[in-house]
């Protein structure tokens, strides 16, 4: 169903030291917005470590250079995350308000970690002047062991960044931004395991 909803294109296959990720991009016919599907592996990063790094918001502020502000609060009994992302000048930064859920599953003897996230609207997090609120965001992350010391990773990501986003920024995200983020995450996993 997902693949039939638009035109499917293999944008780039990136191989970095210890990180190999083909980046697949879907072009939905209705909106023209991009949905990213990423498959690949992180060497020397066990699945639980990857998920722990991904879920640790405080630690993410240390290794993700695009985080401007990131915190979690509880509103009406639900944990909600606020995340402001730095955009290059002269574009406005984007911010997200979202919830997420982490699950560990056993599927036919395979241990799989799943993290789901989606945007929400809460009155305690109103829009801020000068920052564009991303009102439609969803992400799925699935991680399992590669049978060695690393992980196999699948990620689906969609957001509507709002406003006018130039094509050069979209191209940069596809060709450089996402692979660089994954390489940074791989380094963060190694640093995290040494510091804990």
From TrEMBL:
Family matches, as Pfam families: START
UniProt-recorded Gene Ontology molecular function terms: phosphatidylcholine binding; phosphatidylcholine transporter activity
A GO-annotated cellular component: cytosol
Main localization, broad class: cytoplasm
Stored InterPro entries: START-like_dom_sf (IPR023393), START_lipid-bd_dom (IPR002913), START_lipid_transfer (IPR051213)
Compartments (UniProt record): Cytoplasm
Signal peptide interval: 1-18
Occurrences of domain START (ranges): 36-194
Keyword Signal set for record: yes
Keywords from the UniProt entry: Acetylation, Cytoplasm, Lipid transport, Lipid-binding, Phosphoprotein, Signal, Transport
Source superkingdom: Eukaryota
PANTHER family xref list: PHOSPHATIDYLCHOLINE TRANSFER PROTEIN (PTHR19308)
Record note on quaternary structure: Interacts with ACOT13/THEM2.
Entry protein name: Phosphatidylcholine transfer protein
Taxonomic placement: Eukaryota, Metazoa, Chordata, Craniata, Vertebrata
């Amino acid at each position: 169903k997902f693949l039939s909803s638009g035109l499917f294109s293999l944008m780039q296959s990136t191989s970095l030291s210890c990180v190999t990720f083909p980046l697949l991009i879907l072009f939905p016919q209705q909106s023209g917005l991009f949905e990213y599907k990423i498959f690949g592996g992180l060497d020397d990063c066990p699945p639980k470590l990857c998920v722990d790094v991904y879920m640790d918001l405080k630690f993410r502020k240390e290794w993700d250079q695009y985080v401007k502000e990131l915190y979690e609060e509880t509103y009406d009994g639900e944990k909600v995350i606020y995340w402001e992302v730095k955009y290059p000048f002269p574009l406005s930064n984007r911010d997200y308000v979202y919830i997420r859920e982490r699950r560990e599953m056993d599927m036919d003897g395979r241990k799989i970690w799943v993290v789901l996230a989606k945007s929400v609207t809460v009155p305690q997090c109103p829009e801020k002047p000068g920052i564009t609120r991303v009102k439609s965001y969803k992400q799925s992350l699935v991680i399992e062991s590669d049978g060695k010391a690393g992980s196999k990773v699948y990620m689906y990501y969609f957001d509507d960044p709002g406003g006018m986003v130039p094509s050069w920024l979209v191209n940069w995200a596809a060709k450089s931004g996402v692979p660089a983020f994954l390489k940074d995450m791989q380094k963060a996993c190694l640093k995290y395991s040494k510091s804990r």
